[in-house]
Amino acid sequence: MCGIVGVVSSAPVNQLIYDALLLLQHRGQDAAGIVTQQERKFFMHKAKGMVRDVFRTRNMRALPGTAGLGQVRYPTAGNAYSEEEAQPFYVNAPFGIVLVHNGNLTNAQELKAELFSTDHRHINTESDSEVLLNVFAHELEKSTRGVPLQPEDVFTAVRNVHRRVRGSYAVIVLIAGHGVLAFRDPFGIRPLSMGRSKDGTVMVASESVSLEGTGHVFERNLAPGEAVFIDLQGKVHAQQCADAPKLFPCIFEFVYLARPDSVMDGISVYQARLNLGETLAKRVVSTVPPNEIDVIIPIPESSRPSATQLAHLLGVPYREGFVKNRYVGRTFIMPGQGVRKKSVRQKLNVIASEFKGRNVLLVDDSIVRGTTSREIVQMARDAGAKKVYLASAAPPVRFPNVYGIDMPTSSELVAHGRTIEEVRQIIGCDALIYQDVEGMKRAIGSLNPQLDGFDASCFDGVYVTGDINADDIARINEARIGQEDPLEEDTSRLALPNAQDA
């Protein structure tokens, strides 16, 4: 999961891209990068860390130009500890190309072999984004044949990329001296939106919030398989480049990843989370009578809309019982869950008066490993709660995600291969209520009937690209980041700045 942005303007774009990345910070906190273009020359700065830490005044002054790209990275493949894998990525031919990518290629290894043996291109990192860049560069070189670049040449290259590449990818490319290209995979798994400001600046970004927050009017989402080329005069050229596009956005974007003030593929993220709370209410009633619940408390932050709707429908008081410390730095810890438990308590503090002597229903957006949930349930008990119930606005996470979300291997997923009662016992709550998969899809899908469906693979095990089997999952798990660093970083979701904090 990453956040990407591209801009074509008549004015300097460095500050604009920086501001847009701040609005996308929730999508990645590992590294950040910006590249700009002035007179066919690229200027780039990228490093590990948060946007505000990576870019100082001297860095911003060294990024002149009226077109550029930016990315914030949360790594799900490759080497998380290599500064070389921060984006954008660059190749010098044809023309000079830089690329930012959100997603995960499922056939990256096969493509890497093709690039070496057939296309004669060199890959220098473990990043699938560098693979994607070189596939695009090769196809663009073939489509132009040395003549001046035309939009149709760019679209031909994208069409051939779609035929070669599998997986999820939202991509923005800056081609030296020509303009900015954006395209989306044929299933539209990862999001991409476009907007324009009053002065004619055109911006493409992962979420609409980065457009609106920088003074741009949101125009539309890119369609699955569509490519949009913005020339340096700001003229927009668009073409469908996939043979059989279908819109299957990642449902986890709506559950947790995206900011609540974004609109993605015609769906308000905030309204989607309200709807999840509404359908969850029916599940709660069938498990715990509302008169046995004294208070409903969200686990910060993404679960708040679902919790408020749930409380309203059940007629139970809604209270804030946890305070999240937004100023705890990123903690580097020794491997083992014992230290992770400590870090959860550093990041959340309880308001004891909201728990003491009460039957409490905690609401979370989802439960992945279960370690954080178990510790939070214990914190509620330590604060004096009589009973602690836990409701998840999402169904059980039973399968790994292969499309660019850092979902753990099956063995790390608390719900994989276990009944809900077995998960309840592990977490230690008095009752555990999950959303059901079909209810989740209806709740969110009803907001845009034009969708063909969702990628809900981490919940239902159905991989929409149709090219994933058990061997592929095993191979992708082997390539997961974080295996080679002796200090394991705290990757619990409470360690990440949430959408509402960004």
CATH architecture name of the largest domain: 4-Layer Sandwich
Main beta sheet strand tally, sense and closure: 7 strands, antiparallel
How many β-strand stretches?
Answer: 23
In CATH terms, what is the fold-level topology of the largest domain?
A: Glutamine Phosphoribosylpyrophosphate, subunit 1, domain 1
Query: Which oligomerization state do the chains in this entry correspond to?
Result: single chain
Q: How large is the count of helical segments?
A: 16
Average pLDDT metric: 90
Broad shape: globular
Strand order of the largest sheet: 3-2-4-1-10-9-11
**Number of domains as seen in the coordinates:** 2
Radius of gyration: 23 Å
Describe this structure in words.
The chain is α+β, with helices and mostly antiparallel strands and 502 residues long. Helices cover 30% and strands 23% of the residues. The protein contains 16 helices and 23 strands. The protein has helices spanning 14-23, 51-54, 57-61, 108-117, 128-144, 151-164, 208-212, 251-257, 269-285, 304-314, 337-347, 371-382, 420-427, 437-445, 457-460, 470-478, and strands spanning 2-8, 31-38, 41-48, 67-73, 89-91, 97-105, 167-175, 179-184, 193-196, 202-205, 217-221, 226-231, 236-240, 263-264, 267-268, 295-298, 322-324, 332-333, 348-350, 359-364, 387-392, 431-434, 488-489. The strands form 6 sheets. It has a 7-stranded antiparallel β-sheet. Helix 4 (108-117) crosses helix 5 (128-144) and helix 5 (128-144) packs across helix 6. It is globular, with a radius of gyration of 23 Å.
